[in-house]
Specification:
Order of helices and strands of chain B: HHHHHHHHHHHH
Number of helices of chain A: 13
Oligomer: heterodimer
Radius of gyration of chain A: 24 Å
CATH class of the largest domain in chain A: Mainly Alpha
Strand content of chain A: under 5%
Helix content of chain A: over 70%
Mean pLDDT of chain B: 80
Number of strands of chain B: 0
CATH topology of the largest domain in chain A: MetI-like fold
Largest sheet of chain A: none
Shape of chain A: flat
CATH architecture of chain B: Orthogonal Bundle
Low-confidence stretches of chain A: none
CATH superfamily of chain B: MetI-like
Number of helices of chain B: 12
Largest sheet of chain B: none
Distance between the termini of chain B: 28 Å
Order of helices and strands of chain A: HHHHHHHHHHHHH
């Protein structure tokens, strides 16, 4: 048990190191002069010297790398070229909207995807199954902006049920604003979860323990709910963890469509404006967050599945 | 092989996908013939309403016109060619990287194998779309912006991991087979064994994964284009049409729907073919390839 935990923590540390190093390589590879970008053409020689010293630009690559590690360890990710604000501060402002969006999407994926997959498995080969498969195929093949634009056009513009975009002012208003972006973001996951649940549940229904449960005379409701479905949902724990990365990537598009003031939209703007410190900082924070969440998922998995503790 | 073909033909979804794929390839090849209007020519006089707005579908323009008065059908048809060729080149890059790494890992085994597979895990630790967006922005900076190269290089560089994993799994089993022992006993060197014995035996799973990666690349190309990181204009790709049309979704939804539906059809088609091939070859090693 301890060995398994240590191995996973060490792996996470390696991933974090890799991400920090890769982001450094990106900054080092870019030909643009960060000092000029940060200070503009009219800076005094003294300011330039100070900034160059801060970013260790007067030394070799190895020294710059050490400097970068040191700064990251102290939580200093530099300043945005555009707004001159600290990158950590910008990310701090933008993180919560994206987290809300991702959590809402995961909730929708579970609330819609699991029943859809279960219905498909229980009515295997008949029309509910075919319908669910069709929904899944389209959901997995439609790009997020197509789903988003269709939802936006019909539900917001044509029928006026939801706002066109924006963040809302908290409470109920926030939830109303959250519905369409979350549905768009969840579309792929709903399709994916329903397929996984369908195939896992079909496998589980063929197992001996299901036959035993039925032979004991348990009502079908309990056989499926307690025995089969519970075992079929195991893989979803891993999926939810892996999904966080996909959701944060997808959030770039969804936040862009719905003017959601999250990290994804900020990152896209930074990329289009070549605001290197912000790009590097945001990618770094997101990748580290994903590594940590995956670690937590692994640990949860160790806890619920004793077979992995070897 | 013929049993696999029979299984593929018996699968209605797979056949539908194959028909759609052939249709798309036909459209891509015959693009100039299929539309008499020039996809790049803007016709301000006839292609726009009196107020200068895009026209809805009509007899002159089957799918309407866009904000510059260009024929949307002609652009969708031309876009088929660009979108499919970008996805094809990207898939080819991913295939070459993935198959090489997978074969070497599976053949060598041991430390080489675990090092290469850890590399795959590290790449997967990044959210792939974020990585693609980042790479696309970097390649674009690097003076490649006038071609489609930033897009397919990005997609190729990001999309090889599944291929590497699947090929490696197959190669690990092969490396322990009697066939390989026999080849070695006959004095065949590693290069000969890899090319003559491993490659033909992994071809099945490679084709399956390639079809699924192709579908993914189509999707990813459209996402990059939609965000403004796609191929440079004027060559119309479906994603770029969406990017240009997104501001008009209220007044002229056909600007978004036409390329959007084209993307969905193409992605569904390649998915169906890939999954049909997987079931036909019974390539269970490729099961995870349907995942993201």
């Amino acid at each position: 048990m301890i060995g398994a935990i240590v191995r996973r923590v060490a792996w996470t540390a390696l991933v974090v190191w890799f991400v920090v190093t890769a982001t450094f390589a990106v900054t080092a590879a870019i030909p643009a002069d960060p000092v000029k970008a940060l200070l503009g053409p009219h800076a005094t020689a003294e300011t330039i010297a100070r900034v160059r010293a801060h970013y260790c630009l007067d030394h070799g690559v190895v020294h710059q790398y050490g400097c970068w590690l040191d700064r990251v360890a102290r939580g200093d990710l530099g300043e945005s070229y555009r707004s001159k604000r600290a990158v950590t501060e910008i990310i701090g402002d933008r993180l919560w909207p994206t987290v809300q969006l991702a959590l809402a999407a995961i909730a929708l994926q579970l609330l819609i995807g699991v029943p859809l997959g279960a219905i498909a498995a229980l009515w295997r080969g008949r029309w509910p199954d075919r319908g669910a498969i069709l929904v899944a195929v389209i959901g997995q093949s439609a790009p997020p902006f197509v789903v988003g634009t269709v939802l936006l056009y019909l539900l917001a513009y044509r029928w006026g049920w939801f706002p066109i975009g924006g963040y809302g002012s908290g409470g109920w208003d926030r939830i109303v604003h959250l519905v369409l972006p979350a549905m768009t973001l969840a579309a792929f996951g709903v399709a994916y979860y329903s397929r996984v649940v369908r195939s896992e549940l079909i496998d589980a229904l063929g197992e001996d323990y299901v036959r035993t449960a039925r032979a004991k005379g348990l009502p079908e409701r309990i056989v499926i709910g307690r025995h089969a479905l519970r075992n079929a949902l195991g893989p979803l724990v891993t999926l939810v963890g892996l999904d966080l990365g996909t959701l944060l990537g997808g959030a770039v598009v969804v936040e862009f469509i719905f003017a959601w003031p999250g990290l994804g939209r900020e990152l896209l703007r930074a990329i289009l404006e070549i605001d290197i410190p912000l790009i590097v900082g945001a990618v770094l924070v997101v990748a580290v967050a994903i590594a940590v969440v995956n670690l937590l998922v692994d640990l949860v998995y160790l806890w619920i599945d004793p077979r992995l503790r070897a | 092989m013929s049993r696999a073909r029979a299984r593929f033909v018996a699968n209605r979804g797979a056949v539908l996908g194959a028909v759609l794929v052939i249709g798309l390839l036909g459209i891509a090849l015959l693009a100039p013939v299929l539309s008499e209007n020039n996809p790049l020519a803007s016709d301000v006089e006839h292609g726009l309403s009196e107020l200068g707005a895009p026209l809805p579908p009509s007899r002159d323009a089957v799918l309407g016109t866009d904000q510059l008065g260009r024929d949307v059908w002609a652009r969708v048809v031309t876009g088929t060619r660009t979108s499919l060729s970008i996805a094809a080149i990207a898939t080819l890059i991913a295939l070459v990287i993935g198959v090489s790494i997978g074969l070497v890992a599976g053949y060598a085994g041991g430390a080489v194998d675990s090092a290469l597979m850890r590399l795959v895990d590290l790449v997967l630790a990044f959210p792939l779309l974020l990585l693609a967006i980042l790479l696309a922005a970097l390649f674009r900076e690097a003076e490649l912006s006038s071609s489609n190269a930033p897009v397919f290089l990005t997609l190729g560089a990001v999309g090889w991991t599944t291929m590497a994993r699947v090929v490696r799994g197959k190669a690990l089993v092969l490396a322990r087979s009697e066939m390989i022992t026999a080849a070695r006993a006959l004095g065949a060197g590693p290069a000969r064994i890899l090319v003559r014995h491993f490659l033909p035996n992994v071809a099945g799973v490679v084709i399956v994964v390639a079809a699924l990666v192709f579908a993914q690349n189509l999707l990813a190309e459209s996402v990059l284009s939609y965000l403004g990181l796609g191929p440079a204009p004027p060559s119309p790709t479906w994603g770029h049409m969406l990017y240009e049309g997104r501001a008009y979704y209220r007044t002229a939804p056909h600007l978004v729907l036409a390329p959007g539906i084209a993307i969905v059809i193409a992605v569904v088609a390649f998915h169906l073919v890939g999954e049909g091939l997987r079931d036909a070859f019974d390539a269970r090693e490729a099961r995870s390839a349907g995942a993201r």
